[in-house]
Structures are given as C-alpha cells and as structure tokens.
C-alpha cells in the first residue's frame, strides 16, 4: 500500500483488546493478493442489490478487495460520495444494519435521510410502497430498505427508479450481510478469492440455522455457492425436516455442491472449519428463536482452527465465552460490514472514479 | 439556461417511465418566462412561513421560478446553505414531508437535526412548546415543524426567535404544500405566473375535499385566491353542508371569486380543468377519510386535458389506473415539492446571495 | 477577541427579547478573564466522560472558557470535527439533550448517526449493550449515550473502545448537564473560575430536588464540590429524610463543605444566591415528580440578585412568571449547553489543534 495514504483512523479500535485472541484478519493480505478490478465493479453501477444470486464470483471478490482497501486507508478526504444522498428506509427497525450503512455513507462524505422506524411514517396512513418509491425518485440517489414483508422490494420497484439496496425483506434475503460474511472469510483465507488450485484444502462449512426461513442464513448460503469449488461440504444442523425450502434446494442442486442436513450437532461440529450461526429470525411481527437447543460456547467440541460467523444480534445461542477465543470471527465480521457496504455504495452510485490510485 | 450549469442529476429519475403518459411539465418554460426576481424573494428573509395568505402573488410566482431554476441545475456545488442547521421537528410523524424537507436541505449543503416523532421527545415529559422554542434558539437556524395541534405554531413562537416553517398544524394550514401544488400548476401553464391577459382562458378548478377541516386543501384553496383572475370558478365537491368554515368563507368572499358547493361529482367533473383531491385528514389523533364516495379512476368522466393534483399519501380515492395517464400531475407535484422548498429555505435563511448568476 | 473572527451568527437569537429582563451573561468576561488553557484540555483526549467527579477544577474552568470562545465566534468555517462521526445513542429518548449534542456536532462540521429511541433498535431483539459497544468501534469516533439503566455505561464499556460520553444513565449521573450548569454560573460570575480570594463573597447555594435519585441534581452537586472554596453552604430543600444517598454523602463529607437538609422552603429561599431546581426524575420507566410541593414563581421570596438554574424540561414547578425576571438564568443555561458540549467534544476527540489562535 502506497505511503501516500493516511491509515484509517478506525483501525486501532478494531484490534481485539489485550487478553483477547479473537481472530482479526488483516485486510492487507486480501488487498495485496490482487488489487480491486474496477472494471468488474463498474458493472454494478446503477444496479439494484436485492439478493445474493445476482452477484458473480468475481464481483464478490472485487467488492471484498475494494473493502480491504477502504478498511486500511482513510478515504474520507477524497469525498467520493460528494453530493449524493442515501435514504436509509427502515420500515423494520434495526440498530446494527442501519447505523452501519449510515457510517459507511458518512465515511464517504455522502448524506443521509434517515427513516428509523416504519411506525412513524406515512405507512401508518396506509400509503403504498409504490407511491413511496415514486417519491424517493426526487429525494435521493439511492434507497437502502429493510421491511417486514418479503415482497416489499418488488412493490417499491414498481415506481422507484434510483437504485435500491435490500437490507432485509421479510423472510427473503439480506445480500449485504452475505457480502459482510464473505468479506470476513476472504480476509481470513485470501486464497478463497481466487479460483481453486489443486492442493488447496477445501472447507467443511456448517450452518446452524434455517436457510429457508432466515434471510441472513439464506443469503449467506446462496452466496457461498459462488465458492463451491472451495467447499468440501455444507452441513446444515437443524431440527427441521426441510430447512431449505424449495427455492434454496433447487439452487443447491444446480450448484453441484455436496450438502447434508443433520440434527446431531455434537457429531458434526468437530469436523467443521467454518460455522455460520443464526438462531433469531424475524417472523411475522416478532422475533423467534429457532433451533434453540443448539448453542455454542467455549466448551463446544470445535476444531482448533474453526471460525464462527454470526450476523448478530445474538441472544444466548452464541456464548460470550467464545468472544476472546480465536474461534471469534464474528466481531471482525461485524466491523467489516461497514467497509464492504462502502465498496458497494461506491460501485452502485457510480463513484469508483473518485477513488485514488491504489498504488 | 447558461451552459455553465451542470444539469440536476435527479432529472432522469423524474421522467415518467416508458409506457407512461403522466404529465411532467419541464421547468424550463416557467424559468424562461422571466427569471426569478430576487428582490421580491428577499422580502422573505427571516420570516416565518405559517399560512398561505401571508404570501403575495408575486412572492409565489418568484418562488416557483426560483424552484424551476433549482430543478434544472445541480445546485449543491455552490453550497448555498453552508453552515446552516435546519431542525425538522415532526411531533406529528410524516415520511413524505419530512424527507422532502431533508432532501431539500441536503441538496443545498445545509445540515439537519431530525425529530421524526413526537412520542420520542421531551414532549412525553409534558414539556411545553414554549420551552422547546426557547431551546431551539441556540440549536439551529430554522425550524420546520409539524404538529397535531392547530395552535402549536402560536405556542412555539412565544419564545422561538429563529424562523419557523409550518409543515402542518392540526386542522390549520400546510403552506409549503400549497406552494408545491402551485409550482406544479405554474410549470404546467406558465402564463398563470403573469397577470391575466385578455384572451387567456380562465380555469375551471375543482376541489374534492373539505377545505375547512383539511389543512392541505385549505392552504391550496387560499393560495389559489392569489390567482383569482385566472380562475373562472372554484367548484367544491363535498357532501358536507359547509365544507369551508367561517374563516375560509370570508376569504373566498373577499377575493371576489366565483365558487359553488355541490355533491354531484358526475355532473361537475367533466367541466373541470384542474381537480385538487384530498380525502384523508388528520383529525384528533388518527386519520379519517372524508367524502370517501368520491373516487377518481381512469373511467371517471374527466375532460381530456384535465389535470389532477393530490398532496399524497393516498388510499384508494385516487386510483393507480390514472398514474400512467396525462391526468397525472400529482407525481410531478410530489417531485417538485423538493425544489420549491429549496427556494423557500434559501429565501427565509437569507442565502439568495449564494446563488450563481442565472444567465 | 481578535477582529479576525466572525461573530457567532446564533448570538442575536440568544438575547432575551424586548421586555424580558432574563439574565444573559456575556461570554466575553469569562473568556477574557484568562484564555482557555489547551494543555489542560488535552488531558481529556480519548477519555470517557461518565461522571462529575472525574473532572478537576481546572478542567471544568478551561472547558467553560473554551465554551465562552465558541459561543462568541463562528467556529464552523474551521471545520474542527472534519471527518469525525458521533453517534447519539438515546436508548432513553430525549429532545433537549440529543438535539443539543447534534447541534454541537453540526456547528463543528462533524457527522452524526442518530438513534433517537431505544424501542426502535436491536435492543428490542434483546441484544446486549456489550455487543452494541463492539459494533460501535467500527461505526463512529465517539458515542453519546443515554439509557434508563444505571449500569449501562459499564456494560457498553466492556467492549466499546471509542470514547463514551454519558448523557444520563438511569439514576446515575449526567455530567455534561453539570458542565452546562457551571458554564452558566461561570459566565454569571467569572471570579468563580479562579481560586477563591480573600474578600470574595461566598455563595449560598440551594438545591430543590433529590441528589440521590435525580441524576442531573447529583451531577450538579458533585461538580459544585470542585468550587467548595467559593461556597458558603449548600442547602438541600427536600421532604426526604436522606435526599443524598450514601455515595453522595461520602463525597460531601470528603469535600469539607458545609451543607444542610431542610424541608422549609420559605425559610431557606430568601438566603440563597443560586437555586438549582429539578423536580422531575426518570424512575423505572416513567417520569415522576418529587417534592412537588416546592414550586417557584414570581411571588417566591427570592433574594433580589438570586439566580435560578433548572436543567429543563419543567412541568409547573418552575413557573413561567419567572422567565422575564433577572432570576432566570435557566434559559442561558439551556443555550450554553451547546457550547460547552462543543468544547468537550473537541477535547475528547483530540481536535483542539484545529482551533484558530485565540488572540
């Protein structure tokens, strides 16, 4: 990395504190594996970001490399999102996702219109999402939306003509969370960002959760299919007979990836390299814990170098006794969400040309 | 318009999509009819904006011409509201109006303090609006307030000394909505911005709603009185015996304008050039639909060139089948609200001198 | 003050309106008593601001002198908080405190992420403050937090590594309110910012409220102990047997300050120079008025030059008939909170070097 760049002032705060062995992979390795290809990212200009399957392997890899650059340097002085307004329309409230997008926009010197809760909006008057979409065409350059209803993106896109970034739609998808998940994994093992090479060891991946009904889990699993060559097997640990649903099952089969469903966590856990966990789902109008029997803590029979991902918020299914162990990749995952969302916003809003030269 | 200006980047998103014949009048004609007279607009510096009747015909015309300029060009690089803070104090929540003001401030490079809902404020502690007004004197340069109580502006103005812009006060007024309404009409027929000339055809104007109890309708009707010379007659279609109330009736009589009240929508509709519709009113603490029998859809017996205005949000009284027809002026009306609010903020905050030369 | 500075544009709005004799001390005297000592303020860089007792007399005096500078000049053009993000995390909602911090950040050209209410956050999902703290490490440079629970700062600080400013924690403290209180007093009597000199007249200070259970009162009283040399006696007027609680009692005793508790307001009031009043406390999950028998109005037997402080919001315990009298120092106190919070943010965020030369 060129000495011309000021280091990102956030960096010291992301280092695990003294006494913690949490895994914090440096972004440097991913960035230097090969610099971001802006031609690939330019394909995203003006695009909606609705679900994992719209991305190619290369787009995900380049977004993550750009995120690695943005995590290392102080980008704000370049004001790349100058004059751009992003609306964070959170008809379903959230602290984590909304504030992470707002942080991403601020660090890029963009501007924010914030709708933090659906109950305090015209939606209370019964206004349609279609009409809200037409309105947003004049108000902002991009809408980041979270909604309790799965068809909300479809409805707002009937009239919305500026890019929409889906921050979670009912039991649909949460594609930017999947990007954050894979950004953490690509920093952890930069070789995953390149095609599989004979001799690489494939990953045993586990999922504690229900892809069919939990949007973050679904998006993660579907994005993981882009990396199928690097994956030995996906083991879904669930008590449900069909944790996938028809749509995900079809994608799994098309991807030619080996997978299994088991309810035996003790038998499966010791084999896994990556465990993705999420037990909280927003169903209907409240939060429910599924598969609550499956908890992880420092006593769980984890492989020595296994890492855990969790989109957070968590209740007690992911015990805090794991926070200081090297299994903790989930804090890095949470931190990194800001940078990969910055990369995505720059690409979607067509502002890659405002970036400085990388070298 | 001088080539020195960058076109407003929002413009492509405001064009009706392919297949739609919605009426989108270009701002160019209004702006070029005669450029904005900044001396007239300077009269508004430091003024509160509380109700329609405070404006002169000329102030409305010049505000709309300035809005037409702001709609065409990218104004952000001039940072006209540099260093200015606007508080959007929405004790009565709103998506549309609050976000439209916030977009207006952002595009002018001003700053925003956002109070999106009255239930999450000190008001819950029973704090008086008078005390809130005294507080705002130190916090910001301008307050945009919406409140469920009609006397809220009067109460906050006991101590507030920075300009107040009324974004809706109970069953009082909504003057900036009326400005948005007339901005749409003046773009549609720029001759309305000049004195009536013999040979012009006067407009048949219709109102579906209750001016006496719906603040947006009231403000629109009262602002229309400034254009009385251009209006043949105002027909209010309502089931109520007295849809005006004493105050509006007096203004109507003083304005020497012909008006009538009828409940026969089928007989009146085919004669009207402009139909202003609003059937949702905030009464007490909830939304009520009045005159719900009167609905418009693509089958309604509308004059060929008739245009419809509606402040939105709408329920089902204005059918979406009209959206793609030339009768749809309400989408342009919604878009234009941002630009006329920009013009108003520049005038009230005394920043007209930051504008570039128009030619 | 050098002529190089533009006067703060807010100044005219802070002057009491015609007909009001409210006390508005000019910041000039405090600033010119001796200019702010930035070396002392540099001690605060990167520090959490949790309670009154963490400050030294000198730090409070210098913060208030810097506030006096910021109140007089227009600081925004120097952009001292360029690129810095402050999160206002108000899990307990507030209009006054949140908007005053946001105004402070805006005037310094910083950026804001706003969480205006705890009910619209991941906290609803049961997410822990510890996890929220870890998240904030990547999102912002500083967190200003208000919470209903007294141990909330302790919990978030388990993982939060950027500075935390406590804006009120249950029945704990409200240190920045105490700074605002003392800023008002130091402008009123600049000699209080210097060591006591023989011949100065000591103050008779009164408190109408319950320091043990009202955080603003507690913080004010504890910060007042730094000025013990200037105080003749503290009289707490309360109906409670022990209005202090063990912790405050110990601090009072250590400070070697004379104090008494009485329930006789009529006997005590005429002797007091400063009356600090607060009768609203947030207890549990609602607001309660304590000691509601004790009200002040224009007929109260106040000493001629006595001044009243009240953190506001108020109900009817502090009558509006006092607003136009010289006893009213509470409006100045409310205004000044913005400037002393600006001073604090500059110090905590290590941006004192962005200030212009004072002379």
Automatic annotation (TrEMBL), chains A, B, C:
**Which GO biological process annotations does it have?**
'de novo' UMP biosynthetic process; amino acid metabolic process
What is any one of the record's Gene Ontology cellular component terms? cytosol
This enzyme's EC code(s): 2.1.3.2
Q: Which residues form a coiled coil?
A: none
Q: Organism's domain of life?
A: Bacteria
Residue ranges for the region (Disordered) are 1-34
Record protein name field: Aspartate carbamoyltransferase catalytic subunit
Q: Which organism is it from?
A: Haloferula luteola
Q: What is the lineage of its organism?
A: Bacteria, Pseudomonadati, Verrucomicrobiota, Verrucomicrobiia, Verrucomicrobiales
């Amino acid at each position: 990395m060129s000495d011309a760049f000021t280091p990102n002032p956030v960096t010291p705060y992301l280092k695990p504190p003294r006494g913690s062995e949490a895994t914090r992979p440096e972004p440097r390795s991913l960035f230097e594996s090969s610099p971001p290809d802006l031609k690939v990212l330019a394909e995203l200009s003006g695009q909606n970001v609705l679900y994992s399957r719209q991305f190619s392997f290369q787009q995900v890899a380049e977004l993550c490399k750009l995120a690695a650059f943005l995590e290392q340097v102080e980008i704000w002085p370049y004001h790349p999102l100058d004059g751009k307004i992003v609306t964070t329309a959170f008809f379903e409230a959230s602290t984590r996702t909304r504030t992470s997008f707002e942080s991403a926009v601020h660090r890029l010197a963009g501007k924010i219109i914030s709708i933090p809760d659906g109950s305090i909006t015209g939606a209370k008057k019964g206004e349609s999402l279609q009409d809200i979409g037409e309105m947003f065409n004049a108000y902002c350059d991009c809408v980041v939306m979270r909604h309790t209803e799965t068809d909300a993106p479809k409805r707002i896109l009937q009239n919305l003509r500026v890019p929409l970034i889906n921050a979670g739609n009912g039991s649909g998808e949460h594609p930017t969370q999947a990007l954050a998940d894979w950004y953490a994994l690509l920093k952890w093992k930069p070789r995953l960002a390149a095609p599989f090479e004979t001799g690489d060891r494939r990953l045993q991946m586990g999922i504690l959760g229900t892809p069919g009904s939990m949007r973050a889990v679904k998006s993660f699993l579907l994005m993981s299919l882009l990396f199928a060559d690097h994956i030995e097997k996906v083991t879904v640990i669930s008590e449900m007979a069909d944790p996938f649903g028809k749509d995900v099952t079809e994608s799994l089969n098309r991807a030619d990836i080996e997978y299994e469903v088991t309810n035996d966590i003790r038998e499966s856990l010791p084999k896994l390299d990556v465990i993705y966990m999420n037990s909280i789902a927003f169903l209907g109008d409240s939060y429910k814990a599924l598969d609550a029997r499956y908890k992880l803590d420092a006593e769980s029979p984890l492989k020595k170098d296994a890492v855990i991902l969790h989109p957070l918020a968590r209740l007690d299914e992911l015990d805090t006794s794991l926070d200081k162990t090297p299994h903790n990749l989930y804090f890095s995952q949470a931190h990194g969400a800001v940078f990969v969302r910055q990369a995505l916003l720059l690409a979607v809003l067509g502002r890659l040309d405002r970036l400085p030269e990388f070298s």
